[in-house]
Each structure stands twice: as C-alpha cells, then as structure tokens.
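In line with agreed milestones, the collection of sequences with tokenised folds has grown. A representative record is reproduced below.
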Amino acid sequence: MKILIAEDNAFSRTLLKKTLTKAGYDVIAAENGDVAWEVLRQDDPPKLALIDWMMPGLSGIEICRNIRQIDKAIPIYVILLTAKSDKEDVLEGFAAGADDFITKPFDSGELLARIQVGRRLVEQQALMHCLIDSIPDPIYMKDSRGLYVGCNSAYARFVGTDVDRICSRTSAEILPPERAQRSHMEDLRVLANGETIETEGWVASAEGPDVYLSTVKIPYLESSAGSTGMIGISRDLTKRIEMEQEMRRLAVAVEQSTESIMITAVDGTILYVNAAFEKNTGYAAAEVLGQHPGVLKSGKHEKAFFENLWETISSGNTWAGEVTNKKKDGSLYVEEAVIYPIRSDGGKLVNYVSISRDITQEREIEKHLRQQQKMNAIGGLAGGVSHDFNNILTAILGYVALCMNSVEEDSKVYGYLKEIVKAGDRATKLVRQILTFSRQEEQEFQPMELQPIIEDSVSMVQTTMKKNITIETDLDPACGAIHGDPTQLQQVMINLFTNAAHALGAEQSGTLSIKLKQVELHGRKADDQSIDLDPGFYACLTVKDTGCGMPPEVQEHIFEPYFTTKKKGEGTGFGLSIVHGIVRKHRGTIAVASEQGTGTTFTLYFPLLLETAEQEQKAIDLSIPEGYGHLLFVDDDEAVLSMGREILESFGYSVVTATNGRRGFEIFMQNPEGFDALITDYSMPEMNGHELIRQVLAIRQGIPTILYSGYMEKVDGEDLKNLGHSAFMAKPIDWRELSRTVQKALGQEV
C-alpha cells in the first residue's frame, strides 16, 4: 500500500519514512504542501496520507480541503500530524476533512496502529466499491437534490455512457426524455418520503432491444449529519436464467437491501448477515456469526427437506423454495429463499449466499381469500335455500289469506289465522336476515336505527354462546337514526358480540352487557373515544364483557390486520380491523378499554341524523284491499300461480296466468292493450322477469309492471330502482300489499 508523507521537517520526514518502510509500506515523501498536492493529483495517488499541519505553501488544513473536493470512488484516508492539541484545533482539522489526528511527538507503535486502522477502512471501501461495480444489475446513487453521485459499470452500459460522465448530472441529462421525467419524479418521492418504491416494465436499453426491468429504489443516509440519498437497483427479468448463472460471482452485501442476505462457508458456518436479516429474524449479527443456519429451524420440515437442500447446493446447483423459520422470539415466519453457490476462479466451491424474502403476510392473505371463497359459497347456498323458503312462505301466507276471506272476523278461526300471519311475518324477517348476513344483498347507506340490528345480531350469536353467559341489553328506543348500511353494521355487531363471548371463555360464568343511548358531544376531547368527532349528537353503543381482559401491549395492536390473540385456526386477525374500517366508513369512531382479569369495553359512536322523524312500526294491515283491472300474472311455481290467481280474483281482479316469461310475453302479444298491469317473478327459466318487463315496455310504454323476487335489493348485480318497472316487492308476497301496490300503479284509491 502506498503512503504519502507531507512533512517540512527533514528529520521527522526521514524518521517517518524509515518507520513506515520497515513496516512494509511503499512510501512517497514530500517536503512541503505544494509537492504533496501534486502527488495527490496523480492518476494513481496514495490511498493514505500523513500530512503535517504547518508547512510552507499549502498547509495541512488546505490540503485536506482540496482532497475532499476530489471526486473519487475510494477517498484518500488522511491523518493530520501536529503539535497542536487544543479541542478547537482538533475540531478544525476534522471539519476540513481529516480522518484521524495524531499529536507530535508521537509513538511509532501508536502511529502504525492508526495507519493500520486507516488501511483497513480503505480496503473495506475498495472491497465495497469492487462488489457494487461487479454486480451485473444496473445500480446508481443520487444525493438529496436528485443528482447522480455514482453508479456501477452495468448502469453506465445500460444508459450508454461512461461512469465519469454521470456524476453530478440529472436524469434529464442521462436518460431518454420519455423515461427521464418519470424516473426523476420517482427518485424525488423516495428522497422526500423515505419510502422504497418498486416498479416493473419494459425499458429501452442502450445495449440493444428493450428489456423488462424490475427496479427497486431505496433511501439511505448519505452522511452522519443526516443528509439523505437514494440507491436504485434494476433487475433484468428477461434473462433470469443467465442472471442465475452470473449470480455465482456476486457477493451481495449491500446493507440497504430490503431482502435478508446471509453468506456462509461451505460447511454452513455463518460468515455475514445484513441488516434486513437482523430485522426479520430478531437476531443481532453478533449472535449468529459463527453459528449454523440451524439456529433458525422451526421444526416444520422433515429431515429429507434439508438433505435435499444441501445435496443441491453442494453439487454446485442453485436451490429455490419456501422455508418456514423461527425468529429469536419463537414466532414462525415463511421465507421465499434462493441459495447460490459461489466458486473461486479455480472453480472450487468457497461460499453460499442466501437471499430471502418474508412472504408470511402474502400467505396469510391467500389463506384469508380461500376462507372468503368458502364463506361466499356458504352464502350462495344460504341464498338459494332462502329463495326456496320464500316460495313456501308465499304459498302458506297466500292460502291463509284465502282462508281469512272465508271466515268471520270475530271467529276463533280468524284469530288463529291472524297468528299464522304474524308467525309468517317473523319468518319473513328471518329469511331476510339470512339473506343479509350471507351477503346476497349489498345495501346502500340509508337512514336506519341501530336497535333492530343489535337485537337481530344478539339473537343470531346467542344460539352459539355457552349457557353460562348472561346477556344484558339496555337499548334506548328513542336513540335516533343514523345513516348506514345494515349489512355492514350487522357484521360489526356480530364480530364484537362473538369476541366478547370468546373472552368470557367456556368454563366460567360471565356477563355481556350491550347498551345504546343518545349522547351529545360539546367539543373534541383529549380522550380515545371522542377526539376524532365533531360536536353534535351521537348514538353511543357500549359492548362490555366481564372476561379475561387485555394487557396494554395487546390493546395497542387489536385493530391491526393479521393481529389475533386466538389460537391457530380460531381466528384470522382480520375481524377487528374490518370492524374499525366499517365504523370509520360510517363517520364514527371505536375505542377499547380493558384490564386483565376485569373485562373489556368497546365504545362506538355514530353521528345521528338531524331532523329525522321517529318511525313507528306499522301494524299488520289485514283489511281486504279490493280492486279491479285485468292482470297478467307470471310465475314458474304453479302452486304460487294458482293460489295467487285465486287470491287476486277474490280481491276483484280478473287474472290471466303464465308459467314462464316467454309464455307470458306470448300471451301479452295476443292483446297488448287488453291488460291493465303485469305482475311477474324475477327468477324463471327461458326468460326472467326483468327481460319480460323490458320486452313488454318496448311494445307498450307506460303499462304498470310489478316485479317480485326472493332477493330483496339486488338482482344479478343490477340496481332494481333502474330496471324500469313500476314497483318491486320481496318474497314472500304479502298479497294484500300486492293489491294495494296494483291499485296505486293503476291510480285507484288505496
């Protein structure tokens, strides 16, 4: 290694040269600062310099400043020699760019030791520069202003210029116009936000045809003062096989990499790990260096799995696959790993490099999607069963209506029939509840009250709760209405009630308390429950259990995706995160208060609608709505068809029936002006109700059309309000209400 000595004292200069020459260094001596500066400006200057502070011509401080202005990939290491020892002098020297400081007179042992430190740093910088420059992937670095500060040879070849012509320039001066602006804006976003950006796409290369690049742009600290910069790394995915062959020559040891990197000896001894490895595993580098990768074993793989892995890499081949490993804290994670063998120039196997990526969250998402597909299938089945049940209820309630027309209102039989109608109404609500929960209906936000949603949710969850749980409800009937989606809010209630039951456990008795009341918030308060809410009136829902409770460290994470305290297989970790999202979508807030051994309380606030009139529940109207008119009635269920015809005729209408949509259209075309209204089911073979209505309206605009279905709000993903019909009714059909709807459509008094 060449060392420069800049010393105006001849005796000191001779002593220094003799000492360093004896230690094996190649020494160049300069008698003043000007001569020293000429030596340092050569094409191959010394990599380490001993410079006296006070010299004729340029002083040591001035030389330091000049050296730091030289743009070198491997900067010169400078040790200042001086008799000064004041703190201010030392600070001035370091500010000028000195790397070390030694006071005269100096001990030769100390001097050689300091030179050895500098030599190691220079060699490490040279090694890092060599590693980066030898990587075949294009790599470049920029400072906080978005100017290039360096790149490797691969990047220079890719953009079609020399390495020396890139430094201190912008993307617009290096890249084609169509790429320059987009690349520069991405770089500035990385620098401004301190976030990593990954992009993929076809890019023009100066070396030949277009290539498909995967590019990651990573922020990093450029200096100890906190100045930021960034590094961009691109990978050519069009030549993956060729890259895997070239990867044998790589030693990817860049600390800013987001992937875990581990280098081992051929016997598996760990020689190096990067910062990403420390972050992902929880092990500090000092804890694993010299150890075997078996420290990460999770016990989830058979012996044959590792035997195959070692057989593959020891034969000089690349191994790729997924591995389940264990972190220092005992938690498991899944990695997508690639292990490359590294050979020396002579072909001898010398190292292995493992590059891995944590895909635990990706696998959890896949698992959640599979579970969601199962739930969708169950929902579809529930919807089909509910649709058939609606037809049965339609027939039951229809024949009951016929019976009620045949008996006196003051008879016992009439009273019995009224009870059947009430039971049918409850069954109707149950079917609609099943359809809502199975997501056959996706309702838009609408004015609604929380009390029925809470009551329905309690009744659904209560059937699965242990008998040792007592449910207490205190729901203010005058709480008021909110603007919301019943389907989503029912999901919130069921999740909170189910979690409370789980917290109460299977053995000990406990209480689940549910309260709903109206509150007025006068201003934003510094507490968890109302700090995000504007002043006004709110519906306050409290769900409290006397279960096991949660420690503070658990409460901090309960609304995060993937977080769960349940055992494996009992929960996905998505429940409360979805609850939180739904509540926020409703312009509300949710807070939790819990204490171990005491219980947990969830408090939810929803803004109340202003000037909303109270809606009283309507009593079942059993009066006979007599009407008149010629109706075309279409349904593929012959039982419903015959019964409906009889009921409608008993109300005063004349009725023509058809067993499917196509037959109904044929009957209509025989006398288009002869019918006063069309009543049709939606789901029918050959032609559904919507298509029938569409074709009828194309022939005769303005004819009243009434569509009914077992699905209450959505039909084949269409908005029923925009289908063009006069009215829509949900099964099971309330025949009296159907008659009133017909009268209204025909302009008759109701």
